[in-house]
Design brief:
The longest helix is centred in the last third of the chain and has 28 residues. With 499 residues, the chain is α/β, with parallel strands linked by helices. The two termini are 45 Å apart. α6 crosses α10. The strands form three sheets. Strands 2-8-7-6-5-3-4 form a seven-stranded mixed beta sheet, sandwiched between helices. A three-stranded antiparallel beta sheet has the order 9-12-11. Strands 1-10 form a two-stranded parallel ribbon. It has 14 helices and twelve strands. It folds into two domains: 184 residues, no CATH class; 236 residues, Aspartate Aminotransferase, domain 2, CATH 3.40.640. Keywords: Aminotransferase, Pyridoxal phosphate, Transferase. It comes from Pholiota conissans. One of its GO terms (molecular function) is transaminase activity. Its cofactor is pyridoxal 5'-phosphate. It holds the Pfam family Aminotran_1_2.
């Protein structure tokens, strides 16, 4: 209740008692009191699941169909479209929500690919495990980068090419049996849908503590394996959305679990986005491949691809690396799930995996994205939004809103208010992997956060931070009575030709 006077400009526009009462009324405690949260709940797949069973008639349009729930980026894009966003007018918006890096040229990086050859053989289906030459190139890159001098080396038989990271996750989930699967909160939003859709995976959560910078407690994980019978540990590393990374001895000990009867599945899509303090460390990256002893005995599984590190999200060429017998299983699940990755683009990807080419890409990427990170952090700090735990990796900022007055201090409302300013961020609750959606959203450990992406070009980042500044200025000038309501619920179409 003391927040409102703090935001008032000194000497003018002092809120009346009526305004102050409105501010107090906006200090929500439960999702049912918040318009932003009710919009979220009414979207397909976001109703609580399980007993007592709740029914959303709008979702039951086709018998037997159950909505899995949308990922954060999809939900936020749909809400942005309801507020006038379209991909043809995206230059008017600052999209700090999309989990994708800028795809254009950056300083000192190799030239961007701009042509794709189409030999007649490439017009055929590719094998469901991928083109052999590309699989060999992936194995060679990992051996050269992480496994020099080790007796056990990857071959093409340890690599499966997949059409995107989600396809890799889906293929894996389809071949995992009835097991307890450990995951952490917060983590990548798509894990929520994977754990919901593939019901043989029994989800077991672990809440990471911001007081330890969201560090995974390996000793606690070992105890959980013993006491709860965990068979699979699933995690992103580097971590989306917190921007932290498991490395060194912690990563070594995590990989060691895969020699003790537990499969370790690591999503390493941000393995190049590491921001060293010393320039001599530029170009270094992080991968569990460094700590695997036997590539066919250690049950550590790596998912990565061109999407983030090579900044080619539209190519949908990614890979899963693991023991040979896993690759055979993934070939079988791919035959009925997705059919395989794009054949011509697999061929075009081969020269991009040359170790020297990859090294130059890493150095340029780390320099450029570190500059963007520091720029956005400095601008947020100038607005009074200092980031508790600055990212040391990825291109995400995990921004805590708790110090803002209610209702701006929760991610969903902050997100909706920014839509009015033509800016997209991702509310933190999407990273609360909660497959049953039963918890009161206000009780989520991620409720007071948003994820900001510094993946886009610098001008887009400045547009987005300018929008945040306008929201804070509006709150400071007029108090909180105009926040938390009046959100557009359906797509607004001004031009019938756009329908």
């Amino acid at each position: 209740m003391a927040h409102t006077p703090h935001l008032t400009e000194s000497g003018r526009n002092t809120p009346s008692f009526r305004d102050f009462v409105f501010d107090v009324m906006k200090h929500y405690k439960h999702e049912k009191e918040s318009e932003a949260h009710q919009i979220f709940r009414k979207a397909g797949g976001h109703q609580p699941k399980g007993l007592p069973q709740t029914v959303n008639i709008e979702e039951e349009t086709v018998p037997g169909i159950e909505h899995p729930g949308s990922t954060g980026v999809i939900y936020c894009s749909d809400r942005a479209m309801a507020n006038g966003f379209s991909y043809t007018s995206s230059h008017e918006w600052a999209n700090l929500g999309q989990g994708a890096p800028e795809v254009g040229a950056i300083p000192d990086a190799p030239a961007r690919p701009n042509t794709v050859q189409l030999p007649s053989d490439s017009l055929e289906y590719a094998p469901t495990t991928g083109v052999k030459a590309l699989r060999e190139a992936v194995a060679n890159l990992y051996n050269t980068t992480y496994r020099e001098g080790k007796k056990s080396q990857y071959t093409y038989e340890n690599v499966c090419i997949v059409p995107g990271g989600r396809a890799g996750l889906s293929r894996l989930a389809a071949v995992i049996g009835d097991v307890y699967t450990s995951y952490q909160v917060p983590d990548y939003t798509a894990y929520d849908q994977v754990l919901s859709a593939f019901k043989r995976l029994v989800p077991v959560p672990t809440a990471l503590d911001p007081k330890t910078k969201y560090r995974l407690d390996i000793e606690q994980t070992k105890r959980d394996i013993q006491t709860q019978g965990l068979a699979v540990v699933l995690a992103s590393n580097p971590r989306n959305p917190t921007g932290q990374v498991i490395k060194g001895n912690d990563l070594k000990e995590l990989v060691a679990l895969s020699r003790e009867g537990t499969s370790v599945v690591l999503d390493e899509f941000y393995s190049w986005y590491i921001y060293p303090e010393n320039s001599s460390d530029l170009g270094k990256s992080v991968s569990s491949a460094q700590y695997i002893e036997d590539v066919n005995e250690d049950s550590t599984v790596i998912i990565d691809g061109l999407t983030k590190n090579w900044r080619l999200p539209g190519w949908r060429v990614c890979w899963v690396i693991g023991p040979k017998n896993l690759i055979t299983a993934l070939s079988q699940s791919g035959s009925f799930l997705d059919g395989g990755a794009n054949h011509p683009l697999q061929l075009a990807a081969i020269p991009l995996l040359d170790p020297e080419h990859a090294r130059l890409e890493r150095i340029a990427l780390q320099k450029h994205f570190k500059t963007k990170r520091d720029h956005v952090l400095a601008r947020l700090k100038a607005l009074g939004l200092e980031v508790d735990i600055p990212p040391t990796s990825t291109f995400y900022i995990w921004l805590n809103l708790e110090k803002l007055p209610s209702p701006l201090n929760n991610g969903l409302t902050f997100f909706e208010e920014l839509l009015k300013e033509k800016t997209i961020v991702i509310p933190g609750i999407f990273f609360d992997i909660n497959p049953s959606h039963r918890r009161n959203l206000f009780n989520s450990p991620c409720h007071h956060f948003v994820r900001l992406s510094f993946g886009p070009p610098l001008k887009d980042l400045d547009m987005g931070v300018d929008a945040i500044a306008r929201v804070l200025k509006r709150a400071k000038k007029s108090g909180m009575k105009d926040f938390g309501e009046g959100y557009k619920k359906t797509i607004q179409v001004e031009d019938p030709a756009q329908v």
